[in-house]
Structures are given as structure tokens and as C-alpha cells.
């Protein structure tokens, strides 16, 4: 494949390609390799503490070492290994399965990857900042706050920041995948018709969009407690210990609610892609279509919805009342039932099949069996009386490893399934089967004894002598499981050179579109525009496409409306700005599949590198160290500069000329991206507002106002700001109207007005804050600052988050004003519309914050 | 009123004589049923899975024994479902009935565990439990505080549990009582011990370097012995003569950890 043909992208043998690429297949490969690296990282930590557990006592790692190892093992496996591993496949396979040439926003996709990689590096760096996080992967409060972290605790802060960075990557990815799947399906492919793996990814990203927004809120609050000194998760603010009459009695439970509201959907976020892989492998290697496919899909949708109403089953012992316990018991049992259906669907798919025990099928079948055991032992936990006693024991550990690692098992099957597609080579099947044998043995030897030794409390290194035999067995199993990966790595690595070349489809009965193209597929994926209009996959040639797009004016309009696509940047905040760089009209042939899509950009890497440096700096700013302060400053400037560079870079990611777009035919992709981003932003603010309400109710709704808020905190500044924002929203509408009427002066004037009102908002807020910081009254002799009490913390942080949104909006507004001055947007107000969506949203949020923080 | 109650409690122990169903008995019964059924269901379903996988195994001869009965998927076809959905539903219904009836059966037991026994004339012994890094304070009705939990045999003991620093969880595994110890909140739990002896109480939520060693003894005494012990605490003080401070406990934990080779920070 010539370099010219790759549109400026260096060949795969060149290192620079991997820094520049925005192609979904390259990024998929990067995800897979990086995730496997984190599997080894998390796995070595697990082996370390399994060694520790050979005998009772912390004679190997020491107690803090042990706590760090178990905590980071959990974080690495859940966040940095299993989901990104699944998303390696999602990146590579989903566009191929649905007939798209790439994701909707290729540079955003690259940005997701680099943020993910750098967040993992930041996680690694935390080990070298004294101690890393040692409070368990669930990070319960207030053990997660600096007051209870030994030493300076900078490593723990880095972990929190790394998680924020990871969450940013996930949110961008969710927006990208959703936009892709709703705007770029092959003609004739309804949502329900897309292959089951892609469907599982679709539901996964929906859950991610909302669940990770809740996690982001929790992490932002925690980071603020670490860095800014707010007191959300400290129940005793002056440092004294007390059991009751605490300053913030809701502190611990607030974290638990936020974390598990994310944490339970996360279980399905991790498991769904694995289920998708299992279903694909079962279909291919049994030569049967998935039995009860419709019900399988409905079950997945039900689980995805219900996953948001089961989180309190992780908190049955926190003192929640019986009616709520009963409801959550019912939803928990309810969510387990669809899985029964899915399991039986997979079992019956084998009936009358031609089952071939290939390596990917062995892993899929193995995963199904492990999942059945994980599911049955989960029902035990659904019975609350049993759950009480299992809480915090190895029963839970064994159960969720049987579920999560069963998921990982299916994903390893996926690796063997798609390896020939990705590399064009076949691996050694015998070695693959040997690995499966060793893996399956090691897995069960590792996790099954944990059921027998279930009375051992979690995360301890001391256990009764009678249980030693089981813990030793588990340790042996862990090493066998680990060794099986050496076989896999050897096999897959050697096969890159020695493996036999494979054609497009090495598997009999594979049906989905990725197998209809060469292995590996060409850069643009398909030989023509894929279509299922006749009920079977076809590739339309350029002539047909041109003919059809010219005949149907609607379709052509779609084509040109989309040309600005690739200029998206960081998930919405800047997407509006990106839209501003849209070029007006594209020549007709560009819409007909002959366009030169861009595939290379260095900016995503630079943005992420800048973000990494900034976050590393932030982890230490509270020490006042010049080193950390300068890192934060340099990183901040680098990130901002790279974002501007990315916005100004011309980048083409044309929308498909012909595609199935239900239900968003009329929402072009930039707008759909903005909508999905704002949907997650709603959950973010919702979680902040919910946190405020929760801690206030825990304190006492009316006493809060009386005890914690100074009389100087008056309504007027908030009221003025409400008017300023409302007026500015109105001006954005005027700017749109002016742009539509092609009045350059009107557009500029309205945008300048918007900008001025927004700045006025910030100045007013700044004055208000300054005043409150420095009041000196009887009740608040030292002012009312961020750390004064829980009311001040909620006030400054929540309205501060809103202020940050206003600031980002103003940067975009300033950029657009300059562009409007230079004559942009005339006759095409879409960019202003997208900015307006964001700005109105920020405005509406304020309409909630104003009464909550100024009136009630 | 409070004083008279305390006096009453110290003088006359209202005991249930072992006829209250202990939480451990409730747990054991449910756990047994679940283990039995869970194992049975697991064996049946896994066997059923393997049966399908092996029965329909491709013989490698290249012929399709079901060629006339089923249609094989083809490259590039629109994804659709295979036949046999009804069987899925039957199997699903059986599993749903098993799961739902099992959980429903445990629900009545949950109500008992939640509310505790309803005994006429029974005054439960109420003890406040405060968790801290890395030990427990037990506060008796007379204000006496200990680090070891002393309770009489055959008496309902109700615990009000909280924590003074981070999130802990108080559990006595053998007596099947467990509840979260959340700073700023109170949770409650009850138990009764029908046999005397020394049991272990443990922390079940990661709370820092000494978490693994945050255990203490629970001593179940014959009623008269307990009566004697409690009367003495009443005479001596209300401040707690054997209370270790948090710092002392910390030292103990550090010493133990060092002995075990650890180095708590």
C-alpha cells in the first residue's frame, strides 16, 4: 500500500504513524496493546499479594504495601485493562460491522486513546510519589481524603487525577461511538439489525455516558477535597473526632452513593462487550444464528436501563431503611433474570449446530461456564440475609471475579477470533488450545477456593490457619493463570512473522461485514459504499452512489452538511468552535465517496501530553513546591495551545454519502455529538446538585442555613447574574438570526454582547466571592472560604463548576467573534447554533443553582 | 427513668433462655438451602451446556448432518435470530421461578433479622459500638467502656454502631452479626449467643494500615458471671477503666504488624 494511498499517513512500519494516526483500526490496535500492558501491570500486583497470602501476615509487602497492591490491582484491572481492552475491539470492529469508514470524529477518537494512555502513565507515576492510593478500588470516604492518607499523599491525588483523565477519555469515546452508530450505519441496517457485538457496544457506551458522568462528579469533588481543600468527604472538619454531631454527617455515605451509582452500571459496562463477543463466537463456531436474538437484545436493553437502579444493593448494611432495601432487592433480582435468558439463548444456539472447538470458541464456552457459576453465586448475594454476612468477605471477591474475569475470558476469545482479521496471520491453534487449558485450570484453582475460604475478610493479610490450604491453592492458581498468558503472548507475537497468511475470512459461517474485506482491511475499509438495502451486504460503486445522491437532494444535503465533521475536539465544549471552521460547500464529488478524508493529526497526542503534565503538576500544588507549580503551569499552557492548534488544523472526516441514520436523520453529526455530550453534562451537574441536597439533608435542611451560612451571603449578586446570563442567551439567538440574514455587523455585535455579559457574570461572581472570603463576623471570624464548612464547600465548588463552564463558553465565544469579524458564518449559522446549545445549557443550569444556593 | 432502667437491667436480667432464634441459625438455614440448590442448578446447567457442545460437535468429516433441517448463516447476511426461541423461554421461566421463589422465601426471614425478636418482658441489652483506627469501643448503658465485648449468654444484644474516623464495618462472623460503622451515622444490629465462649469481632471495611489486625474478642459469659462483672463496672466508674485510647491501640497494632513483618505507616 503506497504512502500516497494512505493520505499522508506514514506506513505501519514507521513509528511516527502510531503517534499521528486517527484511523479507527490503528487506534484499536493501540488500545489492545496498551490494555494488555495494563493487564500485566495489574496482574503482577495481584501475584505479589497472592504471594503475600501464601501464609498469614504481611511479611513480604508490609501492611501499607499490601493495601496499595490490592487497591491499585483493582483500579488497574477495572479501569485500565478490561474496558479499554474491549474498546480496542470496539474501535477496530464496530465501524467495520456497521459499514462505516471510520468513527464520526476520528481525531476525538485519537484523543480518547492518548488520554487513556497518559492517564495510565499518571497512575504508574503515582507509585513513585511516596505511596500510591491504598484505600481500595471502591475508595470509600473519608479514607480517600488527605487527612487519612499517610505522608504527603501526593500519589493518592495522582490516582484521583488519573481517574479523571481516564473518565474524560471514556466520555469522549461514548460521544464518538454513539454519534457513529446513529449516523453512519450501512444503508438498510436498522439499529436492531446491527451485529450483536456492535449492539453490545452501543448499549455499553450509553451506560458509560451516564455512569461515568456520575463518577466524574465524585472524582472532581474528591480532587477538590485533595487540592482545593473543600470538605465534602470529611465529616469532622476541624480535625477532632466525633461520632455524632458531626460537621458533615453525610460525608461517607455521599461517596458510597456516588461511587455505586457509577459502580453498578460499570459491572455491565465491563461485561456487555464480553457478552457481545461470546454471542459472535457462538454464532460463528456453531454455524447457527443466535436463538431468540430479539429477546437477547431486549434483555440487554432492560439490563442497561435497570443498571441505574440497583446501586444500593452494595450498601445494604449502611442503615438504609427496609422499604428501600426491599425495592433494591427486587430490582437486583429483576436485573439478574435477563441474564438467565441470555445464557439459555447461547446454550440453545449450539443445538443442531456444527460446533467447532477452535481456540476462540473454547474461550467463549469457558466464559459461559464461568459466568454461570458467577451468576449463581450472585443470587446468594441477592438474598439480603446472606448478603449481610457476605459483605466484605471473599464470597464477594470470588463472585465478582467469576463474573468480571469470565468477561475477560470471553474477550481473550475475541482476541483469538479477530487476530487473523487484524494481522492477516493465523496463530498456532494447538498453542491457543493449550493456553485455554492452562488458563481455565489456573482460573478455577485461583478463584474457586475463595468460595470455600469465604469467611476471610476482604483486603486483609491475616487469616485463620485452617484456611491456609485454600489460600495457597489460590496463589498457585494465580501463577498458573499468569503463566498461561506467556503462552498467549509467545503465540501471538511469533505468529506475526511465522503465521500463515489468511484471506478475508478464516472462519466458516462468519457473517458480519468485517469478514467480507481483506485481512487487515484497507484504510478506507470497504471497496465501495456498503449497503444492506437488498437484505444482503453489497458494495455500491462510485457511479451508483453519485447517481443516487444527485437524484435525491435530501441525501446530497446530508453529505454537505457533514463536511465539517472531523473538526471536533474535546467532546463538546470545543466542538462548537470546531464547527466554526467548517467550510461552506464541498464539490459534489466529495459527497460521493471520492473525498480525501484526513487520517493524521499530531494534536491529540500533544493535548494529552499537556494534560498529563498539568495533572502531574496539580497532584503536588498543595505542597507549594515550585517543581509542581511549574509543571501545572507548563502543562496548562501546552494543553490550551494544543487545543487551539487542533481547532485550527484543517481536518476532513466527511459523513457517508448514503447511510442509515434512524432516529437522527435530521440531526447532523456535530449537533448529535453536542447533544450526547450535554446529556452527560446534565448527569454531571445532577450529581453535584444531588450531592449538595444529600449532605444538606444529612446535616438538617434548615439548620444548614442557620448554622453554616453567613448573613453576608445575600441574594442580590446571584439575581444580577441570573439576568446577565438570560440576556446573553437571548443575544446568542440574535447572533444566529443575524448570521442567517448575512449581517456581519449584527453577528459580531450580538456575539460581542454575549461575551461582555458573560464576562460581567464572572466579574460579579468574583466580587461576590472576594467579599465572602474576607468577611469577619462573630460566626465567621476568618471569612467564609472553601474549607470553612460543608455549606461553603458545596457553594464554591458547584457554582465554581458552573463558572468554569461559563469560562469555556467565553473562550469559544471570543474565538467565534474573531471569526465572525473575518466574515464567517454568514448564511450558515450552524456553528453559532451549536455554541448556542452549550450556552443555553449553561444558562439553564444556573436557573437551578440560583434558587438552591441563594434562596432555599 | 433511665436510671431505674439501668438498675433494673443490672439487677434482674430478662433472659430468653435460648428460645430466641439466633441470627446464626437463620443464616445457616438459608445458606444451606442456597448451597444445595445452587450446586444442583449449577451442575445441571453446566452439564446441559456441555451436552449441547459435545452432541453437536462437528465431526470434521465435512458433512452437515442437519443440512436438511437448518439453514446455515451466510456471509454478508443481515443478522437475524435462529429458531428455537420457545425453548429459551421455557428454560428462562424455570430459572426465574427458582430465583424469585427462593428470594421471596428469604424475605420473611429478612423481616425477622431486621426487626429482631419480639419478646414480652424482654429488655434487650443495648450497647453502643464505636469503631476507630484500629479498634473498637463498647459503651454499656451505665457508661462503662471496654475494648472487648462482654455479653451474657441467652440474651438479645442490640448494637448501635458508628465510627469516629473512617468507614469501618463491625462483624462477629460466628454469631452472624454485621453492620457498617459509618462516621456521623448510626446503624443497628442484634444478635444473641446461646453458647458461652470467646468469639472474634473483625473489621470488614478497609480502613488503613492496621485494618487486617483490627480484631477484638467477644466474650459470651454465663448470666451470673456477666451479672457480677457488670455490677463491678457499675461500682468502679463510668469512665471506662480498661479503655485503650486510640493511640494505644495504634501502638498495639503497630507492634503486632511489626511482629508479622509489616511496617504500617
TrEMBL record, chain A:
Where is this protein chiefly located? Answer: membrane
For the region Disordered, what residue ranges are annotated? 549-571
Where in this chain does the record put each Heme-copper oxidase subunit III family profile domain? 591-856
**Per UniProt, which keywords does this protein have?**
Electron transport, Heme, Iron, Membrane, Metal-binding, Respiratory chain, Transmembrane, Transmembrane helix, Transport
Q: Any stretches that span the bilayer, and where are they?
A: 27-49, 69-93, 113-134, 154-178, 199-223, 254-275, 295-314, 326-349, 361-386, 398-419, 431-454, 474-493, 602-621, 627-646, 675-699, 719-739, 746-763, 795-816, 837-855
InterPro entries hit by this protein: Cyt_c_oxase-like_su1_dom, Cyt_c_oxase-like_su1_sf, Cyt_C_Oxase_1, Cyt_c_Oxase_su1_BS, Cyt_c_oxidase-like_su3, Cyt_c_oxidase_su3-like_sf, Cyt_c_oxidase_su3_a-hlx
Topology with regard to the membrane? Multi-pass membrane protein
Q: Where in the numbering of this chain does the Cytochrome oxidase subunit I profile domain appear?
A: 12-533
> Some GO term, biological process aspect, for this entry: which one?
respiratory electron transport chain
| An example molecular function term from Gene Ontology annotations | cytochrome-c oxidase activity
Tell me a GO cellular component: membrane
List the PROSITE patterns.
Answer: COX1 (PS50855), COX1_CUB (PS00077), COX3 (PS50253)
Annotated Low complexity bias = 552-571
Its localization reads:
Membrane
The record ties this protein, via PANTHER family, to: CYTOCHROME C OXIDASE SUBUNIT 1
Protein family per UniProt: Belongs to the heme-copper respiratory oxidase family.
What is the protein name given in its UniProt record? Cytochrome c oxidase subunit I
Amino acid at each position: 500500500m503506497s504512502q500516497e494511498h494512505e493520505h499522508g499517513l506514514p506506513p505501519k512500519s514507521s513509528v511516527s504513524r502510531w503517534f499521528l494516526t486517527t484511523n479507527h483500526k490503528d487506534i484499536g490496535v493501540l488500545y489492545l496493546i496498551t490494555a494488555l500492558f495494563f493487564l500485566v501491570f495489574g496482574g503482577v500486583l495481584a501475584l505479589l499479594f497472592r504471594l503475600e497470602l501464601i501464609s498469614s501476615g504481611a511479611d513480604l509487602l508490609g501492611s501499607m504495601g499490601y493495601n496499595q497492591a490490592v487497591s491499585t490491582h483493582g483500579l488497574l484491572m477495572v479501569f485500565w485493562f478490561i474496558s479499554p481492552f474491549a474498546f480496542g475491539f470496539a474501535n477496530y470492529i464496530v465501524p467495520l460491522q456497521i459499514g462505516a469508514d471510520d468513527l464520526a470524529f476520528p481525531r476525538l477518537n485519537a484523543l480518547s486513546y492518548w488520554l487513556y494512555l497518559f492517564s495510565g502513565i499518571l497512575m504508574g507515576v503515582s507509585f513513585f510519589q511516596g505511596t500510591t492510593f491504598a484505600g481500595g478500588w471502591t475508595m470509600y470516604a473519608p479514607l480517600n481524603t488527605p487527612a487519612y492518607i499517610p505522608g504527603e499523599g501526593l500519589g493518592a491525588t495522582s490516582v484521583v487525577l488519573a481517574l479523571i483523565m481516564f473518565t474524560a477519555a471514556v466520555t469522549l469515546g461514548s460521544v464518538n461511538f454513539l454519534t457513529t452508530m446513529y449516523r453512519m450505519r450501512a444503508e438498510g441496517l436498522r439499529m436492531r439489525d446491527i451485529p450483536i457485538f456492535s449492539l453490545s457496544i452501543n448499549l455499553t457506551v450509553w451506560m458509560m455516558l451516564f455512569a461515568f458522568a456520575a463518577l466524574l462528579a465524585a472524582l472532581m469533588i474528591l480532587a477538590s477535597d485533595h487540592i482545593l481543600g473543600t470538605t465534602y468527604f470529611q465529616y469532622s472538619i476541624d480535625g477532632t473526632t466525633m461520632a455524632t454531631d458531626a460537621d458533615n454527617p453525610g460525608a461517607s455515605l455521599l461517596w458510597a452513593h456516588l461511587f455505586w451509582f457509577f459502580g453498578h452500571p460499570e459491572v455491565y459496562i465491563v461485561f456487555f462487550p464480553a457478552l457481545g463477543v461470546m454471542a459472535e463466537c457462538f454464532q460463528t463456531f456453531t454455524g447457527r444464528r443466535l436463538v431468540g436474538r430479539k429477546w437477547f437484545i431486549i434483555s440487554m436493553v432492560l439490563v442497561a436501563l435497570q443498571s441505574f437502579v440497583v446501586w444500593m444493593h452494595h450498601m445494604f448494611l449502611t442503615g438504609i431503611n427496609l422499604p428501600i432495601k426491599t425495592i433494591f432487592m427486587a430490582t437486583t433480582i429483576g436485573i439478574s433474570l435477563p441474564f438467565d435468558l441470555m445464557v439459555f439463548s447461547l446454550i440453545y444456539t449450539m443445538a443442531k449446530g456444527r460446533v467447532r472447538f477452535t481456540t476462540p470458541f473454547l474461550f467463549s464456552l469457558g466464559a459461559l461456564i464461568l459466568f454461570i457459576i458467577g451468576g449463581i453465586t450472585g443470587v446468594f448475594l441477592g438474598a439480603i440475609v446472606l448478603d449481610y454476612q457476605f459483605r466484605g468477605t471473599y464470597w464477594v471477591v470470588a463472585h465478582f471475579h467469576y463474573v468480571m474475569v469470565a468477561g475477560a475470558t470471553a474477550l481473550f476469545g475475541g482476541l483469538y477470533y479477530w487476530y487473523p482479521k487484524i494481522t492477516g496471520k493465523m496463530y498456532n491453534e494447538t498453542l491457543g488450545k493449550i493456553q485455554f487449558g492452562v488458563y481455565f485450570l489456573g482460573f478455577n484453582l485461583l478463584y474457586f477456593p475463595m468460595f470455600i475460604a469465604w469467611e476471610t475478610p476482604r483486603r486483609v493479610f491475616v487469616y485463620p490457619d485452617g484456611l491456609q490450604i485454600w489460600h495457597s491453592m489460590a496463589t498457585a492458581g494465580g501463577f498458573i493463570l499468569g503463566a498461561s498468558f506467556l503462552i498467549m503472548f509467545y503465540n501471538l507475537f511469533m505468529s506475526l512473522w511465522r503465521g500463515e497468511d489468511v484471506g478475508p475470512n478464516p472462519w466458516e459461517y462468519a457473517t458480519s461485514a468485517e469478514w467480507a474485506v481483506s485481512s487487515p482491511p484497507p484504510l478506507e475499509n470497504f471497496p465501495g459504499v456498503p449497503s444492506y438495502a437488498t437484505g444482503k451486504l453489497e458494495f455500491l460503486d462510485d457511479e451508483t452512489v453519485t447517481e443516487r445522491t444527485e437524484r435525491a437532494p435530501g441525501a446530497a444535503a446530508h453529505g454537505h452538511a457533514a463536511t465539517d465533521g472531523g473538526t471536533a475536539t474535546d467532546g463538546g465544549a470545543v466542538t462548537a468552535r470546531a464547527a466554526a471552521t467548517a467550510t461552506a460547500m464541498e464539490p459534489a464529488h466529495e459527497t460521493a465517496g471520492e473525498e480525501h478524508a484526513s487520517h493524521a493529526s499530531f494534536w491529540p497526542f500533544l493535548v494529552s501530553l499537556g494534560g498529563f503534565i498539568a495533572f502531574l503538576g496539580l497532584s503536588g500544588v498543595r505542597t507549594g513546591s515550585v517543581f509542581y507549580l511549574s509543571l501545572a503551569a507548563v502543562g496548562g499552557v501546552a494543553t490550551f495551545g494544543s487545543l487551539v492548534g487542533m481547532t485550527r488544523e484543517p481536518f476532513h472526516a466527511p459523513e457517508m454519502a448514503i447511510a442509515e441514520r434512524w432516529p437522527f436523520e435530521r440531526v447532523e453529526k456535530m449537533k448529535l455529538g453536542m447533544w450526547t455530550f450535554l446529556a452527560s453534562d446534565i448527569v454531571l451537574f445532577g450529581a453535584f446538585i444531588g450531592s449538595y441536597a444529600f449532605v444538606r439533608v444529612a446535616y438538617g435542611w434548615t439548620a444548614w442555613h442557620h448554622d453554616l451560612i453567613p448573613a453576608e451571603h445575600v441574594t442580590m449578586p446571584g439575581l444580577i447574574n441570573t439576568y446577565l446570563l438570560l440576556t446573553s442567551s437571548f443575544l446568542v439567538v440574535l447572533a444566529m438570526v443575524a448570521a442567517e440574514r448575512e449581517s456581519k455587523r449584527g453577528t459580531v455585535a450580538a456575539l460581542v454582547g454575549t461575551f461582555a455579559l458573560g464576562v460581567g457574570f464572572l466579574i460579579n461572581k468574583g466580587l461576590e466571592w472576594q467579599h465572602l472570603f474576607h468577611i469577619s463576623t462573630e460566626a465567621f471570624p476568618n471569612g467564609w472560604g472553601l474549607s470553612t464548612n460543608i455549606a461553603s464547600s458545596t457553594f464554591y465548588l458547584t457554582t465554581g463548576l458552573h463558572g468554569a463552564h461559563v469560562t469555556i463558553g467565553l473562550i469559544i465565544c471570543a474565538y467565534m467573534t474573531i471569526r465572525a469579524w473575518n466574515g464567517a458564518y454568514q448564511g450558515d449559522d450552524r456553528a453559532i447554533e451549536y455554541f448556542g446549545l452549550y450556552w443555553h445549557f449553561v444558562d439553564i443550569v444556573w436557573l437551578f443553582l440560583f434558587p438552591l444556593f441563594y434562596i432555599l | 427513668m433511665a436510671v431505674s432502667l439501668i438498675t433494673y437491667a443490672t439487677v434482674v436480667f430478662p433472659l430468653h433462655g435460648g428460645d430466641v432464634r439466633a441470627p446464626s441459625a437463620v443464616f445457616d438455614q438459608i445458606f444451606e438451602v442456597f448451597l444445595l440448590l445452587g450446586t444442583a442448578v449449577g451442575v445441571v446447567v453446566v452439564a446441559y451446556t456441555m451436552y449441547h457442545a459435545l452432541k453437536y460437535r462437528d465431526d470434521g468429516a465435512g458433512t452437515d448432518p442437519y443440512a436438511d433441517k437448518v439453514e446455515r448463516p451466510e456471509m454478508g447476511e443481515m443478522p437475524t435470530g435462529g429458531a428455537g426461541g420457545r425453548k429459551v423461554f421455557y428454560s428462562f421461566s424455570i430459572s426465574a421461578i427458582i430465583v424469585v421463589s427462593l428470594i421471596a422465601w428469604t424475605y420473611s426471614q429478612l423481616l425477622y433479622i431486621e426487626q429482631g425478636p419480639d419478646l414480652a418482658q424482654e429488655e434487650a441489652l443495648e450497647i453502643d459500638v464505636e469503631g476507630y483506627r484500629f479498634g473498637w469501643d463498647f459503651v454499656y448503658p451505665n457508661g462503662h467502656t471496654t475494648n472487648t465485648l462482654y455479653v451474657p449468654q441467652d440474651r438479645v444484644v442490640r448494637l448501635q454502631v458508628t465510627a469516629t474516623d473512617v468507614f469501618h464495618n463491625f462483624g462477629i462472623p460466628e454469631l452472624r452479626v454485621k453492620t457498617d460503622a459509618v462516621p456521623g451515622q448510626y446503624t443497628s444490629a442484634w444478635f444473641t449467643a446461646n453458647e458461652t465462649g470467646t468469639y472474634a469481632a473483625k473489621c470488614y471495611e478497609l480502613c488503613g494500615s492496621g485494618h487486617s489486625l483490627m480484631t477484638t474478642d467477644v466474650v459470651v459469659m454465663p448470666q451470673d458471671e456477666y451479672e457480677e462483672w457488670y455490677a463491678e463496672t457499675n461500682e468502679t466508674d463510668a469512665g471506662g477503666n480498661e479503655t485503650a485510647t486510640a493511640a494505644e491501640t495504634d501502638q498495639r497494632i503497630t507492634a503486632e504488624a511489626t511482629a508479622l513483618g509489616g511496617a504500617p505507616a
